[in-house]
């Protein structure tokens, strides 16, 4: 798909009939009205998304999009660039946090390498290499138009595969050393802010390191300034392959009608971009958690969404979203299995 085709991708409407039926069911369950709080809200929302009275979150699909960033050479991360490749191998061999969480959830788990400086060779890693890295956006655009199109398409294809495998809930995770700098730069461009407003600790850089990140972002904003207008052009200039793949995945999930659980800071920036392209796709997004990464809460506020969890998690990989699936499963179990007042002979 060409860049402009992404702007025309439709978003599937929510099924209001099933949402209404789920709401009526909730009213009949043996509890004071509203007493299960957001668990009720989530079950009803999922019913509208899945077009069933009793939704299910048993079939979860987790795809990790991984890529290196040219801006890493500006020393914006607490970790060296080769960690991207090392973690890809760790995802595939089961040792990463998201690998453990995916196993716990019984999720379909896929790792896609979109381009790393240190090549990856592992039978369980899907290699869709666009280039060895995105370009350093303090010097030039992070991606060419064709690289952006490839990345968006790789994300979308992952969702189509997940749907063909019967996935009910999709999580995009990311890995890419320096990607908090890219995510912060993207938000500065969208919200017309300065580096200092958006830069955070990422993997754990010092206060001085955060100041340096802010300066790197400011340099990029000056370089690309006049061109930072259309959302996909902002993404092309300041993003990265894995962030673009998440945008493509979210847009395709909304088009095909698959509920999404959004993860932390970087994923939320990708969700924000997808929403800038088509506001309706927000309906398909459940925000899993809030990361302590500076500025995550601000974006969630801008989007007027309330994440399910706030556990101080600042890992990425899709990990916060995966933990939130447990709550969604609980919401679905209660909705499906509680007795009604009539069944249990309880006075209403
Ligand atoms: C061992 C390790 C595992 C990770 N898993 C996710 N990230 C997270 O940290 C990176 C972003 O932070 P920054 O912008 O500071 O580089 C991303 O790759 C993100 O997913 C990790 C980072 C490390 C070091
Ligand atoms: O919130 C996140 O997703 C995050 C924060 C810091 C580093 N990596 C990921």
TrEMBL record:
SUPFAM superfamilies tied to this protein: Nicotinate mononucleotide:5,6-dimethylbenzimidazole phosphoribosyltransferase (CobT)
Keyword Metal-binding set for record: no
Pathway this chain belongs to: Nucleoside biosynthesis; alpha-ribazole biosynthesis; alpha-ribazole from 5,6-dimethylbenzimidazole: step 1/2
Sorted UniProt keywords: Cobalamin biosynthesis, Glycosyltransferase, Transferase
Function of the protein: Catalyzes the synthesis of alpha-ribazole-5'-phosphate from nicotinate mononucleotide (NAMN) and 5,6-dimethylbenzimidazole (DMB).
CDD domains linked to this entry: DMB-PRT_CobT
NCBIfam families found in the cross-reference section: cobT_DBIPRT, PRK00105.1
Active-site residue numbers: 317
Enzyme Commission number, as recorded: 2.4.2.21
Family: Belongs to the CobT family.
Gene for this chain: cobT
Source organism, top-level taxon: Bacteria
Class of enzymatic activity (EC top level): transferase
Protein name as it appears in the record: Nicotinate-nucleotide--dimethylbenzimidazole phosphoribosyltransferase
One term of GO molecular function: nicotinate-nucleotide-dimethylbenzimidazole phosphoribosyltransferase activity
Catalytic function, reaction form: 5,6-dimethylbenzimidazole + nicotinate beta-D-ribonucleotide = alpha-ribazole 5'-phosphate + nicotinate + H(+)
């Amino acid at each position: 798909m060409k860049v402009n085709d992404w702007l025309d991708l439709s978003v599937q409407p929510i099924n209001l009939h099933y949402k209404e039926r789920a709401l009526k069911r909730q009213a009949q369950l043996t509890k004071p009205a509203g007493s299960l709080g957001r668990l009720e809200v989530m079950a009803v929302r999922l019913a509208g998304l899945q077009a069933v009275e009793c939704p299910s979150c048993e079939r979860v699909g987790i795809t990790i999009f991984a890529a290196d960033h040219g801006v890493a050479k500006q020393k914006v991360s607490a970790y060296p660039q080769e960690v991207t490749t090392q973690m890809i191998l760790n995802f595939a061999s089961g040792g990463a946090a998201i690998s453990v969480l995916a196993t716990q959830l019984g999720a379909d788990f896929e790792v896609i390498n979109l381009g790393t400086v240190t090549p990856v060779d592992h039978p369980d890693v899907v290699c869709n290499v666009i280039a060895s890295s995105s370009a350093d956006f303090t010097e030039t655009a992070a991606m060419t138009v064709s690289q952006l199109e490839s990345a968006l398409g790789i994300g979308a294809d992952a969702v189509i595969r997940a749907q063909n495998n019967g996935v009910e809930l999709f999580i995009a995770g990311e890995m890419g050393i320096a990607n908090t700098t890219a995510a912060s730069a993207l938000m500065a461009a969208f919200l017309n802010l300065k580096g200092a407003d958006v830069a955070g600790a990422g993997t754990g850089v010092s206060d001085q390191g955060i100041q340096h990140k802010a300066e790197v972002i400011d340099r990029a904003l000056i370089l690309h300034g006049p061109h930072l207008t259309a959302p996909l052009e902002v993404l092309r200039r300041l993003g990265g392959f894995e962030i673009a793949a998440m945008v493509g995945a979210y847009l395709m999930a909304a088009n095909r009608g698959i509920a999404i659980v959004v993860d932390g800071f970087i994923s939320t920036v990708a969700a924000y971009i997808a929403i800038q392209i088509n506001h309706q796709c927000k309906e398909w997004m459940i925000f899993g958690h809030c990361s302590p990464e500076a500025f995550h809460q601000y974006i969630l506020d801008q989007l007027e969404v309330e994440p399910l969890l706030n556990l101080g998690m600042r890992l990425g990989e899709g990990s916060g979203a995966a933990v939130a699936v447990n709550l969604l499963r609980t919401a679905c179990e209660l909705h499906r299995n509680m007795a009604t007042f009539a069944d249990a002979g309880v006075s209403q």
